[in-house]
Structures are given as C-alpha cells and as structure tokens.
What does this fold into?
Amino acid sequence: MKTLSIVIAGVGGQGTLLASRILGALGTDEGFQVKVSEVHGMSQRGGSVITYVRIGDEVFSPLVEYGGADYVLAFERLEALRGLPYLKKDGTMVLNTQIIPPMSVITGASAYPEGILERLRASVRTVELPAFEIAEKVGEARAVNLALLGKLSTLLPFSNDAWIRAIRGCVAERFMNANLSAFEYGKAEVC
It folds into this structure.
C-alpha cells in the first residue's frame, strides 16, 4: 500500500490523540508500518492541536509536509482552515461542522471568521459531518472523534472488522458502547 498521510486538526480535549492512537493501531494490526507524530500545539483543553498519522508499506517519517496529506480530519471549522495547507490537491477534508470559538473570540479580541465552509467547499473535496450532534445522540459528547473516524472509515481501505478491533484496543470499556455507536452513526451519515 502506498503511504497514507492523515493530518488530524482539532482542539485540545476533543479526543484528537485517541483518534491518532486508533488510526495507529488500525495500521499496525493490518501489518503496515505506522508513524504518529508528536502533538503540535497546545494539547490542553481549548488549544489548537495538529497530529500526523502515516500508514504504509514503508514509512520513513511521521511528519506530513504542506500539500502532503491525503486526508485532513478536522474536529472544528476553524481547525479545518488551519489544516487546509496540509491537504494534497486531490485530498479530502473530513470535517466536523461544529464551531468552537477560540479564547481570542471568547474574550472579544477577535471575531470568528465567516464563510469557512464555503471557502473549504470551493477549494477542496469536503465531507461534512455533524459529529457533535452524533456524539450527543449516543450520550457521550466526547465521542466526536469516533463519529469522525466512522466517516473516515468509509474512505480508507480497511475492513469494518479491522476498525472495530482497533477501537476496542484503544477505548476504555466503560466508554465502548457510546464510542462504537458514534462510529457507526458517523459511518452511516449521508454527507
């Protein structure tokens, strides 16, 4: 398999690290080399976070350069904009449509940018998902990450069984039912 490069762009506290661990487990369990980057940004709740995941027959570096990502998994609209430079011209943006205002917007120091979805749609292939609504539907607001991974699973060359094994290997048992439900809802959501 050619190397798949995925950039995860989100906000600290949304489960971006768990998403990268699940992707890493998925690739490893399927017999591929996997490299996951260190977190770039503020991983505390509310800070911007970028993580790189690379899966393939031979993976030499965990880093994804601008224009090198096959997929950007964006946990929030503004984070999608921040992740946009990483996407290849023929890449796909998988995007949670939720808005999480950064601290500068909350304090009134700046305004949240308007027209983000329109800008993204005009420049790249987007797959939009109301991941927060899905997470609330399953009773676990922190399951946004699994809803997004469910949608991403429809685009990647791995079986559903492989995804479920990876999720089971990374998610605590007490959260398993809600996370598996969010994954299934995300996968089934028509975008």
Summary: DSSP finds eight helices and seven strands in the chain. The radius of gyration is 16 Å. The CA atoms of residues 10 and 16 lie 6 Å apart. The mean pLDDT is 93.
